[in-house]
Specification:
Largest sheet: 7 strands, parallel
CATH class: Alpha Beta
Strand content: 5-15%
Distance between the termini: 43 Å
Low-confidence stretches: 1-13
Strand order of the largest sheet: 1-7-6-2-5-3-4
Radius of gyration: 17 Å
CATH topology: Rossmann fold
Oligomer: single chain
Order of helices and strands: EEHEHHHEHHEHHEE
Mean pLDDT: 92
Helix content: 25-40%
Length: 239
C-alpha cells in the first residue's frame, strides 16, 4: 500500500472528502446501527464521486436489481432488495449512501471465488491469532466454546479477503476511485480489507475511514467520532 503519511484525524461530526488523502480505494467503515455514521458515508460518497460503490450488505444477485434508472430511495430499495429479511438496520440508513452518487452499486457479499492469493491457509502470528480469538469471544459475549474461536477467526479472514477481491474486481472494471461500505471490523488497517488488498496489490493507495462513538477504535487512516447510540445490552441475545 502506498504511504499515506500522517493521515490520522480525530473529528467530531462529519468530514469532507477534501480531508481524505487521494486514493484508488476508500473503505468507509461504520457501526452498523449509528445513523450519523451513514450520514458521513453519504456525504463522502457525494464528494468523492466514485466510479463504483460496493456494499458489505449486498450480494451480486441483489445489487444487479439496481439499474441505472432505479430510484435510490428507501421506499423503492427496501422491497427491491428484500431488505426487511436481511437482518441489517433500516434501509433508510443506507439508501442515502446509494443515492449520493449515480455510480454502479455492487455487492461485496455472496459466494467467494478463489481466494488462495490472500494466504488464508497460512497460520497467523500467535499474538495476532490470540488477539483475534479474544475479539471473537468478546463479540459473542463469551458464549462461544473456546474450540470454536479459531473457526470464527478463519471465517473473518475469508470475508475480508472476499471483500478485497470484490473491491479489486470493481476497480479493474470501473476505474478509480472505488468505495467499499463495510463495518469497522472490515475497514481496520492492520488486518481488515486494506491489509488484504495490500497483500496482493501493494501498488494501490487505500484509505480506510473508521467511525467510532468517542471511545478508542480499531486502527484506521482517518478516524471520525459521532455521538453514541443508546442500546440495550447486546449480550441479552446470548442469555
Amino acid at each position: 500500500m502506498k504511504a499515506l503519511g500522517a493521515a490520522l484525524a480525530w473529528i467530531a461530526g462529519t468530514a469532507g472528502a477534501q480531508d481524505l488523502p487521494p486514493a484508488d480505494i476508500y473503505v468507509l467503515g461504520e457501526i452498523h446501527d449509528n445513523p450519523a455514521h451513514h450520514a458521513v458515508q453519504a456525504d463522502l460518497v457525494a464528494q468523492l464521486g466514485p466510479a463504483a460503490i460496493l456494499f458489505e450488505m449486498l450480494s451480486d444477485e441483489q445489487a444487479v436489481r439496481i439499474g441505472p434508472d432505479t430510484p435510490r430511495d428507501a421506499a423503492t430499495l427496501g422491497p427491491l432488495l428484500d431488505w426487511a429479511e436481511s437482518g441489517w438496520p433500516d434501509i433508510a440508513f443506507y439508501a442515502p449512501i446509494m443515492a449520493a452518487s449515480d455510480a454502479p452499486i455492487l455487492g461485496a457479499a455472496g459466494e467467494a471465488g478463489d481466494l488462495s492469493v490472500y494466504g488464508l491457509a497460512a497460520a497467523l502470528p500467535p499474538e495476532e491469532q490470540e488477539a483475534r480469538e479474544r475479539l471473537q469471544a468478546e463479540a459473542h459475549c463469551g458464549a462461544l466454546p473456546e474450540e470454536m474461536l479459531p473457526d470464527f477467526v478463519a471465517r473473518q479472514r475469508a470475508i475480508d479477503a472476499q471483500f478485497a477481491a470484490r473491491t479489486l474486481a470493481a476497480l479493474d472494471a470501473h476505474g478509480a476511485p472505488v468505495v467499499l461500505i463495510a463495518g469497522n471490523g472490515h475497514a481496520r488497517t492492520d488486518w481488515g480489507v486494506p491489509a488484504a488488498i495490500a497483500r496482493v496489490r501493494p501498488d494501490l493507495a487505500v484509505v480506510a475511514v473508521v467511525q467510532g462513538e468517542g471511545d478508542p477504535t480499531v486502527p484506521g487512516d482517518v478516524v471520525l467520532q459521532a455521538e453514541p447510540q443508546v442500546r440495550g445490552d447486546p449480550c441479552d441475545a446470548f442469555r
